[in-house]
Amino acid sequence: MVVTGCAWLLCHYLLADAGEFGPLPHPLEALWLKLHGAAAMIALVLFGSLLTVHMRRAWSHRRGRATGGMLAGLFVLLTVTGYGLYYVAGESVRAWISVVHWAVGLAVPLLLAAHVYTLRATLRSVRSD
Question: Residue 5's closest CA among 117, 108, 102?
Answer without folding.
Answer: 102
